[in-house]
Design brief:
Blueprint: H1 10-22, H2 26-44, H3 50-73, H4 91-118, H5 122-132, H6 137-140, H7 143-163, H8 166-173, H9 177-190, H10 192-219, H11 226-252
């Protein structure tokens, strides 16, 4: 695998490419996202291991969306089989993906445990109150909760970048789990400005939608409809985010099997 260094502006392009591919086949990609959410709901309800199993499946889910994006670029209709396609490449390949998933789940659990310890469990207490329907505005505005949420963001971002390219490096590059995580971290660091622009672009899009939606429904004297409009928007943005992951990979690496894909 050959590492590519890209300019900061590529981060905005990744987002644009994600929207472009999504709107080619919006129903297909939305259906894949609903399937993922349904599977996650079923898995997380499993006793004892549900949460850990849900975290372990995330690397394969991101790889499935990358495969779906590639299928769309090649003029094919992405089907749910993209989520099991990674396991059709032999026992060693499957073993590497399973090891990666378990490693991600354990690392995520460690990060969440560390965050709970550092913030005194304030965020976990809020989540439990929300589950019981007992959360109040005062609880959400608690400075400990706000700092706890920020702490989780600070700890989660580096973990995500460690595993960002790892599933694709195993699938298309034949890397071992350890090498995949290492080269994922190197690629993200070497292209950090592109990833910063990528994150900022998503922040601007989501923020702009919130402002426009609020102004629009306020002019219609129906501000309560903002939350109603937020659901389909969040669904679309989440799906497009997963679609755009493929472009972050093919821009940072040059695997032979993906070299024929379209780039701008």
């Amino acid at each position: 695998m050959k590492l590519r260094l890209v300019g900061a502006s590529r981060g905005a392009l990744w987002v644009r490419q994600g929207f472009r591919v999504f709107f080619r086949q919006p129903l297909a990609f939305t259906a894949l996202f609903f399937l993922f959410m349904f599977a996650a709901f079923v898995v997380v309800t499993l006793p004892w291991v549900g949460g850990l199993a849900m975290l372990a499946m995330l690397p394969v889910v991101t790889l499935g969306f990358m495969i779906a994006t590639r299928e769309s670029l090649l003029g094919r209709f992405p089907l749910p089989g993209v989520f099991i396609a990674p396991f059709r490449h032999g026992r060693e390949h499957t073993r590497s993906l399973l090891i990666l998933g378990v490693a991600y789940a354990l690392a995520s659990l460690a990060v969440m445990s560390l965050a709970d310890w550092l913030d005194g469990g304030s965020v976990s207490a809020l989540q439990e109150s929300m589950a019981r329907g007992e959360a109040t505005r005062e609880m959400m505005d608690d400075p400990r909760v706000q700092s706890g949420l920020m702490l989780r963001l600070v700890l989660t971002v580096p973990l995500s970048l460690l595993f960002w390219h790892a599933p694709a490096l195993i699938h298309w590059g034949g890397a071992t789990p350890a090498k995949a995580v290492f080269f994922s971290a190197v690629a993200c660091w070497r292209n950090k400005w592109a990833f910063l622009v990528y994150a900022l672009t998503w922040s601007v899009i989501v923020g702009l939608f919130g402002v426009v939606a609020t102004l629009f429904f306020s002019l219609l004297s129906a501000p309560q409809l903002v939350s109603l409009a937020a659901f389909p928007a969040a669904l679309m943005f989440s799906t497009v985010f997963y679609v755009s992951l493929y472009f972050t990979f093919v821009d940072c690496f040059e695997p032979a099997s993906v070299a024929a894909d379209n780039r701008e």
